[in-house]
Specification:
The structure holds 2 protein chains of 2 kinds. By secondary structure, chain A is an alpha+beta fold. Chain A has 2 helices and 10 strands. Chain A is 29% helix and 25% strand. Chain B has 4 helices and 9 strands. Classes of the chains: A alpha+beta, B alpha+beta.
């Protein structure tokens, strides 16, 4: 039975194939072209919008100033901001510090490049660039002010306790520390932002890495 | 093989158009954004005092990454109603104005270092309003206003007052709230 079936079907299939061949070549000039156009447009929309969305949710790709672990975008608050910066500002709903007001530096890694983690303890010091006022603020992984038992999330240059040589050290840890202490959130990544208000000279100019505080990891674990 | 090369051409076309779509999306997004800072500040247009958008302490604010040591206030302006005058009395606390376009982007900023006898006063106007103001001005008694030309009709001013210590936070907030933003009649 089986052989009969295959025998009877095989010629039929062969004839179908033969008869459909001219049609297939005609079709391959029309239908696939439409498909290819649709494919190209969908690819363009998907990749174009997807990549734009991805860039807008991150940091500006160009124009960053990196000094040790600290990173800033000096033209973010100026008329020279590039289109990526403008798109990112609009996306975040942010109001960046203007060039004439000051400059904000963010660190999400320590001075050796390891990501900041609330499970570790850190010390930040001992110098900061000259400015009328600076503030050092702790943010959690989502960019919010962390909720801790201590309640303090920032130090200003006026508050911080200094030694006789005018140097300061801020301890970041879960447990109580003597001196300047900021309590870290219970877990997860965090970032530190150093804002310089009214620095001398144009924002971002004549700043050097040696003027910035070092973020040192002291240890990890409970 | 021919089908494959056609597929490759289509993919390349898609990639080229994708680059165009990407650029267009980046350029358009400040104009299309509905949750940007201007949209949130616009309701303050009619107020003649700056409205606090982030009180010191950084609680209850839409501003991303607020600085707890800074009081941030804002007023929106629409220069079609005439030039806008922003005025503040400066004290010992750092105070700054920054002028933003509707589509984001700073076009001017000034700190209290520019204050004259404890008053910081800026008039924002369009290029046309500046011409009119110059034309009607008395030559013997020129205006002492600091005038800046805004590139767009609409925008907003951000006032920042810092509180170096937590005890100064109420004072910083008061100083930020006391800034006046008034639309002037075309003079």
């Amino acid at each position: 039975m089986d052989t009969e079936v295959t025998l009877t079907n095989a010629p039929a299939a062969a004839s179908m194939h033969a008869s459909s061949t001219p049609q297939a070549t005609v079709k391959s000039r029309f239908v696939p072209t439409v498909f290819l156009v649709v494919y190209a447009l969908l690819l363009a929309l998907g990749l174009g919008l997807g990549s734009a969305y991805w860039v807008m949710n991150g940091n500006p790709p160009f124009g960053s100033l990196r000094l040790g672990p600290w990173q800033a975008w000096p033209s973010l608050g100026s008329p020279e901001a590039d289109p990526y910066m403008r798109a990112i500002i609009a996306r975040r709903g942010d109001v960046p510090l203007a060039t004439g007001e000051g400059l904000g530096f963010t660190a999400s890694a320590d001075s050796e490049g390891r990501a900041l983690d609330a499970g570790c303890s850190y010390s930040i010091g001992t110098v900061a660039p000259s400015a009328r006022l600076w503030t050092l603020t702790l943010y959690d992984g989502d960019g919010r002010l962390p909720v801790t038992e201590l309640g303090r999330r920032s130090f200003t240059s006026a508050e911080v306790v200094r030694d006789a040589q005018d140097r300061f050290t801020i301890a970041l840890s879960r447990d109580v520390q003597a001196g300047n202490w900021l309590q870290l959130p219970p877990s997860g990544p965090f970032s530190v932002t150093l804002r310089l208000y009214d620095p001398p000279g144009a924002a971002g100019a004549n700043l050097e890495e040696s003027d910035f505080p070092v973020i040192q990891r002291l240890g990890c674990g409970a | 093989m021919r089908g494959f090369s056609r597929f490759l051409v289509a993919t390349l076309c898609g990639l080229v158009i994708a680059a165009g779509v990407h650029i267009a999306a980046i350029f358009a997004s400040p104009y299309l954004a509905e949750q940007d800072a201007f949209a949130k500040i616009q309701p303050t247009l009619t107020a003649d005092k700056a409205q606090i958008i982030s009180a010191p302490g950084g609680e209850n604010t839409w501003l991303p990454k607020p600085d707890p040591a800074v009081a941030v206030a804002a007023c929106a302006f629409d220069l079609r109603n005439g030039p806008m005058r922003v005025a503040a009395r400066t004290g010992s606390l750092f105070l700054s104005f920054s002028f933003h376009k509707e589509t984001g982007g700073v076009f001017f900023a000034v700190t209290d270092r520019a204050a004259v006898r404890g008053e910081l006063e800026i008039v924002a106007m369009t290029a046309r309003q500046l011409d009119e103001a110059r034309a009607t001005e008395d030559e013997n008694e020129p205006s002492r206003d600091v005038r800046i030309v805004a590139p767009e009709q609409q925008g907003f001013v951000i006032v920042r007052v810092t509180a170096p210590a937590p005890s100064l936070r109420p004072q910083a907030e008061e100083a930020a709230k006391a800034v006046s933003c008034t639309a002037e009649q075309d003079a």
